[in-house]
């Protein structure tokens, strides 16, 4: 017995240093509500994969952690870019001495980040073999010579990465230059998209050909330590990460931001050692796991917002536990679009425009905000998202009107009447009228479907709901096979141009899912793209908003209010509006976390 006790005591003593070390490690625990696709920046587009890559790879610039509404600052760039007066030539100097995380592809060498890495990384989006889902968006930036390089690859079957092009080249070891076909006054936002356009090393991509999604190697603050697809993602501090200290520029009247800066200024980043992510798609288990203190941060699921923050205030029971509430109006918009090539809802003849506007007027957005969003949204007036250039909270349009009486009057005026007495309206030529609304067979879609059916029934429009999985609906939408579909779009940067791009005629069948084509709108889009921000550009934006409201290829519904909860041992959290980066800016009190 005494021997057994001595053995137990010895084992306990041996374990103590290990326990203390584990206890001191700062681990951030988090859950994604949907699965990732992988971690090759050129091959992803989903939010959750991009959240990971934003912390593994480095872009040239990034968005300040505390500045609101936004501020672009150098990341691996050595200062802000130089640009020509016409905004066609942009030159960026990269800071020397930045290194990639260690990887066998480097054969034991410390691999420095150089300008050629960014040249290679941007070129990958144009390589047909990469099949980048964001190729078209980057191609619009118009880097000289890359379209021709891609065209050559499509003919030959091989993309020539070694061929220098005028629009994208390293002019020395640490300097990269971009030359563009047209003026791009806001090209800085492309350079700040580190979650997509962070630097990869050619050796790594070639070493893991065919498996680049599971082998991310960057210069960012974290590196991938473990991945079980659609289940668990673990990142750990990158030992090679450069010496970087907390610094930010919150507004002078931003009390919260100033307080965070005062606590953390000068601290070395990242402040945490490890990030552990679980994939939990169902809302209730995520909510319960957070209440059980298994996660440190929770974007509150819609069904539980009123429990977490009744009337926008932290629930007393959660406040007593030391939790903190974070709410922000997101730079997004939910919408449904009409297929402008569809025989029933498409076209721009007066009766087709009247049908779309009547459907819009019959849509009860206020009820949706209360019953579906639990009050966590505001009505959208147009395509312009909050926090993006040109957004005006005082702007009002017909888009937000709910007026079933006007909807019925429009339908009557243009011949959409019930001719056979069955309670449903027919088309002006007397043939049956049936709206087909695409949806998905999941729990979260049901409230929208029910409200849509109630709204259309109220004005005598027969509605059929076509259900299929989201990837299948997206495939059908791109092929022009859906009549009406609801989506949500979050702004990737503070400019309005990307939002307008989803209605730009030449992008029909790509990001322009409604296949909307209007010569004046397209001309405005091109003109706005080359103008600096100012009154002239704003006047064009307002004209484009009026065109879209009048022709109604899309009905904009709400801008969402996002609600997050953090545990009491999490410090410094502020949801990033752009860029998806925040892990390196938060701190964890591990003793408090372990004790609870």
Fill in the keyword field for this structure:
Dipeptide-binding Protein, domain 3, Dipeptide-binding Protein, domain 1, four-stranded mixed sheet, five-stranded mixed sheet, alpha+beta, disordered N terminus
Describe what this molecule looks like in 3D.
With 596 residues, the chain is α+β, with helices and mostly antiparallel strands. Among the domains are: 39-215, Dipeptide-binding Protein, Domain 1 (Dipeptide-binding Protein, domain 1), CATH 3.90.76.10; 332-560, Dipeptide-binding Protein, Domain 3 (Dipeptide-binding Protein, domain 3). It is 32% helix and 17% strand. The chain is built from 21 helices and 21 strands. Strands 16-15-17-13-18 form a 5-stranded mixed β-sheet, with helices on both faces. Strands 1-10-9-8 form a 4-stranded mixed β-sheet, with helices on one face. A 4-stranded antiparallel β-sheet has the order 4-5-7-6, covered by helices on one side. It is globular, with a radius of gyration of 26 Å. The protein starts with a helix and ends with a helix. 40% of the residues are buried. Mean pLDDT is 93; it is low at 1-22.
List low-pLDDT spans.
1-22
The CATH homologous superfamily of the domain at 332-560 is called Dipeptide-binding Protein, Domain 3
Overall pLDDT score: 93
Strand content bin: 15-25%
Task: Calculate the terminal CA-CA distance, rounded to whole Å.
Answer: 35 Å
The dominant shape is: globular
**Structural class by SSE content:** alpha+beta
**CATH architecture descriptor of the domain at 332-560:** Roll
Q: How many strands in all?
A: 21
Rg result:
26 Å
Q: Tell me the major beta sheet.
A: 5 strands, mixed
For the largest sheet, list the strands in their spatial order.
Answer: 16-15-17-13-18
């Amino acid at each position: 017995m005494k021997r057994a006790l001595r053995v137990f005591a010895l084992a306990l003593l041996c374990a103590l240093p290990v326990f203390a070390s584990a206890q001191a490690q700062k681990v951030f625990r988090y859950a994604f509500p949907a699965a990732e696709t992988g971690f090759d920046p050129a091959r992803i587009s989903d939010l959750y994969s991009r959240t990971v890559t934003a912390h593994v790879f480095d872009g040239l610039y990034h968005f300040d952690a505390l500045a609101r509404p936004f501020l672009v600052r150098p990341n691996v760039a050595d200062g802000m870019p130089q640009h020509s007066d016409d905004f066609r030539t942009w030159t960026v100097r990269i800071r020397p001495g930045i290194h990639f995380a260690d990887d066998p592809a480097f054969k034991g060498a410390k691999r420095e980040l150089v300008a050629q890495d960014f040249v290679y990384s941007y070129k990958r989006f144009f390589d047909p073999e990469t099949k980048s889902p964001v190729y078209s968006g980057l191609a619009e930036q118009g880097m000289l010579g890359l379209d021709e390089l891609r065209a050559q690859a499509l003919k030959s079957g091989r993309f020539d990465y070694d061929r220098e092009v005028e629009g994208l080249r390293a002019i020395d070891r640490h300097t990269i230059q971009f030359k563009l076909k047209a003026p791009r006054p806001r090209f800085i936002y492309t350079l700040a998209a580190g979650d997509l356009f962070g630097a990869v090393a050619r050796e790594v991509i070639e070493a893991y050909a065919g498996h680049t999604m599971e082998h991310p190697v960057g210069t960012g603050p974290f590196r991938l330590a473990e991945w079980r697809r659609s289940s668990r993602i673990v990142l750990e501090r990158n030992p090679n990460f450069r010496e970087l200290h907390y610094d930010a520029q919150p507004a002078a009247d931003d009390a919260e931001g100033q307080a965070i800066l005062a606590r953390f200024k000068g601290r070395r980043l990242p402040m945490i050692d490890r990030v552990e992510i679980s994939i939990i798609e169902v809302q209730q288990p995520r909510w319960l796991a957070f209440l059980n203190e298994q996660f440190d941060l929770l974007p509150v699921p819609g069904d539980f917002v009123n429990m977490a923050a009744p009337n926008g205030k932290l629930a007393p029971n959660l406040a007593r536990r030391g939790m903190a509430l974070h709410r922000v109006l997101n730079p997004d918009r939910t919408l449904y679009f009409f297929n402008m090539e569809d025989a029933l809802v498409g076209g721009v003849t007066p009766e087709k425009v009247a049908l779309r506007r009547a459907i819009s007027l019959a849509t009860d957005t206020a009820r949706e905000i209360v019953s579906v969003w639990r009050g966590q949204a505001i009505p959208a007036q147009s395509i312009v998202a909050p926090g993006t250039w040109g957004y005006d909270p005082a702007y009002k349009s017909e888009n937000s009107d709910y007026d079933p009486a006007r909807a019925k009057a429009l339908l009557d005026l243009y011949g959409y009447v019930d001719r056979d007495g069955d309670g449903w309206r027919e088309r002006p030529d007397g043939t049956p009228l049936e709206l087909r609304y695409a949806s998905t067979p999941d729990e979260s879609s049901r409230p929208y479907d029910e409200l849509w059916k109630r709204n259309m029934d109220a004005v005598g429009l027969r509605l059929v709901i076509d259900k299929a999985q989201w990837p299948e609906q997206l495939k059908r939408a791109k092929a022009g096979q859906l009549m009406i579909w609801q989506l949500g779009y979050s702004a990737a940067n503070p400019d309005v141009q990307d939002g307008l791009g989803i209605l730009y005629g030449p992008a029909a069948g790509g990001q322009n899912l409604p296949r909307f084509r209007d010569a004046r709108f397209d001309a405005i889009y091109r003109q706005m793209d080359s103008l600096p921000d100012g009154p002239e550009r704003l006047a064009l934006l307002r004209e484009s908003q009026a065109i879209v409201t009048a022709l109604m290829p899309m009905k904009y519904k709400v801008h969402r209010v996002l609600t997050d909860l953090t545990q009491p041992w999490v410090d410094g959290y502020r949801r990033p509006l752009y860029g998806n980066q925040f892990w390196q800016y938060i701190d964890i009190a591990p003793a408090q976390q372990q004790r609870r």
